[in-house]
């Protein structure tokens, strides 16, 4: 079957074919993600900042006001339009974007236009260690200062322009004081797991209207604090013949010496149906390839959307696939991990169930967890049940994670749970509305402790701001 080019692939192709000299001839540069400030190379001591929602270049010193320092601090995140580029998020959650060639600070509307306007691709700057930021969608234009205002101007091959468009990424004027998110930027539905002593995080890429992102990234860590970005591991457009968008809620499991990634996806052209697929790789960081060339579960085969897969492997080595939206299903997987007996599919829907099934086992008890309400609702939350087998029967125990408005935490849910390689230490990864300005399509991922009470029930999860 011919491989199709999805939205991301198309965008990159367009860039490659339309890049004007300045970007294609300049070496692409990488920028570390996380909190940074951007200092002008030709006006040392002046930094990129926002003021009244416009980008400027202003002096900032240790004696500047806390507000000025904060306004000159940005979190460098995954590019909203492309993981090969970057976006710059201010402390209020808004992003630098160009509009009418001026640089503004605005909230992510999730549209293709906004995401492109808020994405900049880094190339080597005029002096060693500096970067220049080319527009993602107008690649012959770069972010530059002019009369201390930030503009998106056509590249000119002059020393003046190169200097005006080059910035050093310095330590942030306002260091981060809160813990979350664990990976900078907009991500959701995190699947956390541990392979051979290393933690891995597989999230949905967020920030798209209608959750339309086409690709998945993988992150890994040894301490659950410092995460390495392994880049894109599966891109629906080029990698999956039957899906173009809606790369939702991946789950990765190791079996048979390989890694299986279960995921959901929708076709383009306004088709809202979601199918559930499985991809395979020899490495936890991919690249993954579609294992079947068709969905494992086609939309409409069972009631509810075929989304939010999760695989639990019991001590006897048997693996079970859970999925569902509105209705929760489970079925034992065959040894190949890519097929099952449809006659063995069971409906295990508990009261309140919406989506995001997750199962763990501790001291012989099976814990079936899920999310309740709508991910766009601040009351999105996590509940659980216990049972004697991977198939139940289940006894609902209640809600363990919910909003904390006093901490600015809304809509915490679509979680996953991982046990440390040794001992009885457990952690939970989940998403919430990005703090402070997120919503149901602008979510962020965080990790907290999950503890069990002496009677085996799960203690309420205390979310960290
Ligand atoms: O991220 C897209 C969808 O939103 C997921 O599949 C649901 O669980 C909800 O988090």
Automatic annotation (TrEMBL):
Keywords: Carbohydrate metabolism, Glycosidase, Hydrolase, Polysaccharide degradation, Signal, Xylan degradation. Residues 1-28 form the signal peptide. InterPro entries: AbfB_ABD, AbfB_ABD_sf, Glyco_hydro_43, Glyco_hydro_beta-prop_sf, Glycosyl_Hydrlase_43_Enz. Residues 37-168 form the Alpha-L-arabinofuranosidase B arabinose-binding domain. GO terms for biological process: L-arabinose metabolic process; xylan catabolic process. Belongs to the glycosyl hydrolase 43 family. Pfam families: AbfB (PF05270), Glyco_hydro_43 (PF04616). It comes from the Bacteria. The keyword Hydrolase applies. This is Alpha-L-arabinofuranosidase B-like protein. The record marks 308 as: Important for catalytic activity, responsible for pKa modulation of the active site Glu and correct orientation of both the proton donor and substrate. One of its GO terms (molecular function) is alpha-L-arabinofuranosidase activity. The active site is at 189 (proton acceptor), 355 (proton donor).
């Amino acid at each position: 079957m011919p491989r199709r080019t999805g939205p991301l692939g198309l965008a990159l192709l367009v860039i490659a074919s339309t890049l004007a000299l300045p970007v294609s001839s300049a070496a692409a540069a990488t920028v570390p993600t996380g909190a940074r400030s951007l200092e002008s190379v030709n006006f040392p001591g002046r930094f990129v900042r926002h003021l009244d929602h416009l980008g400027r270049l202003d002096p900032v010193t240790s004696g500047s006001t806390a507000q000025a320092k904060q306004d000159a601090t940005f979190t460098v995140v995954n590019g909203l339009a492309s993981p090969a580029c970057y976006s710059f998020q201010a402390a209020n959650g808004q992003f630098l974007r160009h509009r009418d060639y001026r640089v503004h600070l605005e909230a992510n509307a999730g549209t293709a236009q906004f995401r492109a306007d808020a994405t900049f691709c880094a190339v080597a700057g005029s002096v060693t260690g500096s970067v220049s930021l080319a527009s993602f969608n107008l690649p012959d234009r770069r972010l530059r200062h002019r009369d201390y205002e930030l503009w998106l101007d056509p590249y000119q091959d002059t020393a003046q322009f190169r200097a005006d468009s080059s910035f050093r990424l310095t330590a942030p004027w306002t260091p981060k004081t809160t813990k979350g998110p664990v990976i900078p930027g907009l991500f959701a539905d995190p699947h956390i797991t541990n392979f051979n002593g290393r933690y891995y995080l597989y999230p949905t890429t967020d920030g798209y209207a209608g959750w339309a992102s086409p690709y998945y990234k993988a992150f890994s860590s040894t301490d659950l604090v410092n995460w390495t970005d392994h880049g894109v591991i599966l891109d629906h457009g080029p990698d999956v013949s039957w899906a173009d968008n809606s790369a939702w809620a991946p789950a990765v499991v190791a079996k048979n010496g390989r890694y299986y990634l279960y995921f959901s996806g929708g076709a383009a052209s306004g088709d809202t149906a979601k199918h559930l697929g499985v991809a395979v790789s020899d490495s936890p960081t991919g690249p993954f390839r579609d294992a079947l060339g068709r969905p494992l579960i086609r939309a409409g085969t069972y009631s509810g959307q075929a989304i939010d897969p999760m695989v639990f492997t019991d001590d006897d080595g048997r693996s079970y696939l859970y999925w569902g939206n509105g209705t929760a299903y489970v079925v034992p997987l065959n040894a190949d991990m890519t097929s099952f007996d449809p006659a063995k599919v069971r409906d295990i829907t508990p009261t309140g169930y919406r989506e995001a099934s997750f199962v763990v086992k501790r001291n012989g008890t099976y814990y079936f967890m899920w999310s309740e309400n709508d991910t766009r609702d601040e009351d999105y939350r996590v509940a659980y049940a216990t049972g004697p087998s991977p198939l139940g029967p289940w006894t609902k125990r209640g809600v363990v994670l919910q909003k904390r408005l006093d901490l600015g935490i809304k809509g915490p849910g679509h979680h996953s749970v991982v046990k440390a390689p040794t001992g009885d230490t457990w952690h939970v990864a989940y998403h919430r509305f990005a703090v402070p300005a997120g919503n149901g399509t602008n979510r962020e991922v965080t990790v907290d402790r999950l503890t069990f009470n002496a009677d085996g029930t799960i203690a309420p999860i205390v979310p960290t701001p």
